Amino acid sequence: MILDVNSVTKVFTGRGKNKMVANDNISLRIAEGEVFGLLGQNGAGKTTLVNQILGLITPDCGDIQLLGKSVLGSPARARSICSVQPQSQVPLGFLTPKQAVTLIGKMRAGKRFDPRRVEMLFEALDMGEWANKEGEKLSGGAKRLTAFCMAVIAPGKLVILDEPTNDVDPVRRRYLWQVIRNLTNDGTSVILVTHNVLEAEKAVDRVAIINKGKILMQGTPSEVKSSVSNQMRMELSLASESDFEIPSWALSSQKNGSRLIIAIDPQEVTSTIEWAKEHVDNGLIMDYSLSPATIEDAYIELTSKKVVGL
Amino acid sequence: MNLLSHYKYVFQMQFLRNAGFLVFMILIQILISIGIVIGFTYLIPVPDKDTILFLATGAPTIILIFTGLVILPQQIGTAKSDGYMEFMRTWPVNRGVILGADTTIWLIITIPGIIASSVVAHLMFSPGYDISWTVIPALLMIALTSIGVGYGFSYLLSPTASLALSQVIVFGALMFSPVNFPMERLPEWLQALHEILPIYSMAEIMRASLAASTFEATAGNYINLMIWCVLGYGGAIYILNKK
């Protein structure tokens, strides 16, 4: 076990004795080579948890163990085991991405630092054009990628990435997920902090959904999804906005102009497709798509009391 | 990995990150220090040798005060608000190493200004420099105190509060501190205050090393600086390690 967070609670006391429970009895464990997603809305307590893992703040109660030893006793050790990409941009000043990544690599790995890894990362993320440009002049995405490289150039046993894909273009996002996957092949574990749920679904082995300081649910993405809903959803574009008879086997439906979404039982898939084809042939439906409930549906249902989507 | 190689990499990181800014600061420092020596002679129509010597031996102290108590707190304020401070706290190095590397950089940028102002003053006025070997330890001690105190209050206070304090210090050090003129000219309550604050002791120690045959510093001055130096760095390390 790389990381073992055991019943951690952290309360911040603001002005006028206002108490804010940032983490409420949180427990989770991360195994070697695992990508663990920490999903939650703004202010859910994700970054507070990360800062406690790094030993930057101390939990009010509970314990955090990294490789079998408590972080509370030796925060300096925690900082050498974990490398972090912070949520905010790293202000590079006059440093070029190449300088910044190389220096952090040397700081972390010392003599074991391999400069070829910098080249390799820059190539994998297609960052060549920025490598020797001053940090101040880089775009937000290029800065974010540089901060990502700084976190993974000499990864410890645990890499913590706080919203790594913010500002990054869709093509390089894919490269980035690939680099993260390659990290885990070498036995490094990854904590991915994000509210970009759909993207995370493809990248993580396990997720925890955290809301108002509490973990609502944790498990593999499919476990999390099935705990909430075992339905399929069909989305239809209707030929006209006029009345359309909703089939009786629809579990629920929502019509918005010419767009109709219906929820169905997975066993009804075959007959639903046939039904849809028929209506396409007679011109009532323009096109249709069928998809399983996404982790986003589960996430929204868990974190907000409202039923959204279906 | 040992402290020394950590120090090397942290130093390179901080130095390269600020490279452009540092060059600019060095130039400003040179201008200010020469400005103090020449500019003040405009304020005083017929300056005598003693006055000039006071100005010339005060300029290096002003530079060190500016660097440690004005420019540095502004930089720390920026690093705090743009998240760089928080990022440094995640580095796998001893926090003292970061403080040490930064101190070295601040020390380096003061040197050109101090040398330039002294050379210019000597060539223009020959005010009677008598440089003692103690100039090196004196300079180090004054610089460390100034930088240490600057770190202490800018880590302890919010960016806005430390910015305000540093503005008061600029004005106070230049106009109301016995750096460029003798202590006796100040009202008694200010004299008493300056017995406690580090600025007077800095000025005395600097003068005693630059014009050893004219001025001398007391043991009290050295003790005063040491106390402030320890308080400053102690406070800074405390805040850096605070959770």
Automatic annotation (TrEMBL), chain A:
Gene Ontology molecular function, alphabetical: ATP binding; ATP hydrolysis activity
Taxonomy, superkingdom: Bacteria
Protein's UniProt name: ABC transporter ATP-binding protein
SMART domains: AAA
InterPro entries xrefs: AAA+_ATPase (IPR003593), ABC_transporter-like_ATP-bd (IPR003439), ABC_transporter_ATP-binding (IPR050763), P-loop_NTPase (IPR027417)
Keyword Transport: yes
Annotated ABC transporter domain residues: 3-237
Entry keyword set: ATP-binding, Nucleotide-binding, Transport
From TrEMBL, chain B:
InterPro entries membership: ABC2_TM, Nod_factor_ABC_transporter
Protein's membrane topology: Multi-pass membrane protein
Keyword Lyase: no
Transmembrane segments: 21-45, 51-72, 105-125, 131-153, 160-179, 222-240
Record carries keyword Transmembrane helix: yes
GO terms for cellular component: membrane
GO molecular function annotation: ABC-type transporter activity
Keywords on record: Membrane, Transmembrane, Transmembrane helix
Compartments, record wording: Membrane
Main location per the UniProt record: membrane
Domain ABC-2 type transporter transmembrane: 13-209
PANTHER family membership: ABC-TYPE MULTIDRUG TRANSPORT SYSTEM, PERMEASE COMPONENT, NODULATION PROTEIN J
Designated name of the protein: ABC transporter permease
